[in-house]
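Each record in this resource describes a single protein on a pair of labelled lines. An example record follows, reproduced without changes.
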Amino acid sequence: MQLIRGSTRLLQRHRFSISNTLPFTSSSCGSWSANESRKLGFDSFPSTRAATYLISSLKNAGFSSLAVVPKQNFSSRCFSTTGDSVQGSPESDCVVPQRIKFKRLDKTAKHIMQIVDKEAVEEVRTLREIPEIKPGYIVQLKVEVPENKRRVSIVKGVVIARRNAGLNSTFRIRRLVAGVGVESMFPLYSPNLRVIKVVDKKKVRRAKLYYLREKVNALKKH
């Protein structure tokens, strides 16, 4: 392209010089002959032929150079938006992580404590014999008193209530001391209970015999 532009500029200059010289020769030197004008170098016809030949050759050269130049692929330098766009599926957008379920600590601890409590009860029963105690039974206990230098005292009475709570199970007995009713509550699996002996078994309809508190003479025969 630069070669064509330079050739066109050269041609324009050549035509301009010819156009300037032709009027001068025609006005002042009209009597000159063709041979003299050729000698001076003002022959217009050969110059125009040479110019046309030069233009045609330059055009051919320009077209050939354009044909040789490879076609550049400008699409490779640009971002294409015609491709398939990645569309998020509704399933992937709405994926929610699965919730991990945790049990409440109090429930878990309660379950563990039940197991531990059951194992402790079995261990105590293997160490010493503990008879079945129910309300209405008359029992005799040998109790070790830590406050009295661990001396053993004998307690006898009727069972009026029992509370089942695993290792913390308790029972309540009622007895007469100097004509006054006295109630005592003992842990069933306490190590201070050396001996538990069932003296008599009486059948009762109630689980709690609290009505014996109103009957002072109910335990005289015992």
